[in-house]
Specification:
CATH class of the largest domain: Alpha Beta
Oligomer: single chain
Number of helices: 10
Shape: elongated
Order of helices and strands: EEEEEHHEEEEEHHEEEHHEHHEEEEHH
CATH architecture of the largest domain: 4-Layer Sandwich
Number of domains: 3
Largest sheet: 8 strands, antiparallel
CATH topology of the largest domain: Phosphatase 2c, domain 1
């Protein structure tokens, strides 16, 4: 029943054509595939429909002859549209006359023609006979070409009061043609002097007079260019409605619907509108990449910080985390200092320095008394030693406690501890140069007598 048509040109167009026989015994309407052609230096497309008359054989041949003449002339192109229309009409009329002369049975046959040419956004029209061309814009229908039947004459008589409007619409002569392509002189022909500028959303309907079985309001409703309503649906809706009416004298009905400004520009018009996907938003894409990069950097930073923290907390070697180590009792060389940097589990019966193994701790004298003062050389949070080697300073009692593993201390060790507490101040002045002494300790040691390693004052 219908057919999707191809086209060329600059405008986006959705086109579909279809026809039905109606109550007739044969199809005497003919339409052409849209024809791309050029005139001057411009590209254009031709749409054309013809309605034949003169009996079964004559009407069908007449409409086919007219369509063939128009497509042949326009396909060759020319310098102007006016020339092309004139040449096409002359060729069609001559060929119809030749067919009538060839076969006497075909004498008297003829056909109408309605043709439009679209160049970019401009519409040019040409017609002979009563085949209609309508423009539907913003839900209003306008006929663009003249009606060369007797109906306009009868309606004019009704306007003058000579007959009623009802009589004019029902007059049996209303379909008689005043001008037609029949091999003889063509009395009336219609063409535009100036092009009509098309707009997005326009709908063009051209066809045979068989579609006029529907009212104007019905044609508007069924053919209007609207979203999600393609030309194919429009054509099928019109022809289905005509068949539903089933008028007893229904003529052949043919129509071509052209929706302007729908779909995308293509060399082949599809019956359904194609929707173009929106291009990606570059700003959103850049923002997404930036956020992703920031998340990656934050994840790396958190992982690195956590890894370093675990390394510090799990490192038993004070030298690896940059803390100071005091030598064991009697140590006087850097070698002894290094050997004591990694504490080992001690035997409680073995005499050792009360400061042995306290990595990162400086021993000094509290200026408020003779208590040992414990001062970290660098700030390390939550740093600790193993439970067997840890020692704490009791700032309230001024004594040094051993952990639970060393509470039962050998008598010799206890005595030695007391002696070491008394001599701590003097011992700091004879420590090896490789051991750092904080500035505060150095200041407190100035001007005080230094004892030898056995606890006696050196001879003066």
């Amino acid at each position: 029943m219908g057919k999707t048509l191809s086209h060329g040109g600059q405008l986006s167009r959705d086109v579909f054509a279809g026809q039905i026989i109606g109550a007739r015994n044969s199809q005497q309407d003919t339409y052409a595939e849209p024809l791309n052609f050029s005139f001057g230096h411009r590209q254009a497309v031709l749409y054309v429909v013809s309605d034949g008359m003169g009996g079964h054989a004559g009407g069908e041949l007449a409409s086919q002859t007219v369509i063939a003449a128009f497509t042949d002339v326009f396909a060759r192109g020319g310098d102007s549209l006016e020339t092309l229309f004139d040449d096409a009409l002359t060729a069609a009329n001559s060929q119809v006359a030749a067919e009538g002369q060839r076969d006497a049975a075909l004498d008297g046959m003829g056909a109408t023609v309605v043709a439009i040419v679209i160049v970019d956004d401009e519409l040019y029209l040409f017609s002979v006979g009563d085949s209609p061309l309508w423009l539907i814009r913003e839900s209003e229908m306008s006929r663009l070409n003249e009606d060369h039947s007797m109906l306009p004459v009868l309606m004019k008589m009704a306007d003058m009061g000579e007959i009623s409007a009802e009589d004019a619409l029902n007059d049996p002569k209303r379909h008689v043609l005043r001008s037609v392509i029949h091999g003889k002189e063509i009395k009336l022909k219609n063409r535009t002097s100036e092009p009509l500028v098309l707009q997005r959303g326009d709908s063009l309907v051209l066809g045979s007079d068989g579609i006029e079985s529907l009212s104007e309001s019905k044609l508007i409703a069924l053919t209007e260019n609207r979203p999600r309503y393609c030309a194919k649906a429009a054509v099928e809706s019109v022809l289905d409605e005509i068949e539903r009416l089933a008028l007893p004298n229904q003529d052949n009905a043919t129509l071509v619907v052209v929706h302007i400004g729908k779909g995308r520009k293509t060399s082949v018009i599809k019956h359904e509108t194609e929707v173009q996907s929106a291009p990606p938003n570059k700003n959103l894409l850049i923002a997404g990449i930036a956020v992703l990069a920031l998340l990656i950097v934050l994840a790396i930073a958190i992982f690195t910080r956590s890894d370093k923290k675990n390394e510090v907390l799990n490192n038993d070697d004070p030298a690896e985390v940059g803390v100071q180590v005091l030598p064991a009792e009697g140590a006087g060389s850097s070698e002894n200092t290094q050997s004591s940097s990694r504490p080992t589990r001690r035997d409680p019966n073995v005499l050792s320095s009360p400061l042995e193994g306290n990595a990162g701790i400086d021993a000094g004298i509290d200026s408020s008394g003779d208590k040992p003062r414990v001062k970290p050389s660098i700030p390390i949070k939550n740093s600790s030693l193993s439970s067997d080697d840890a020692m704490t300073s009791d700032s309230e009692s001024g004594s040094v406690e051993l952990d639970e593993g060393e509470k039962e201390v050998h008598p010799r060790r206890a005595a030695q501890n007391e002696e070491l507490l008394d001599n701590t101040e003097n011992e700091r002045d004879i420590m090896d140069d490789s051991v750092d002494v904080s500035p505060e300790v150095k200041k407190e040691s100035e001007g005080k007598p230094v004892k030898s390693s056995d606890g006696n004052l050196p001879p003066s």
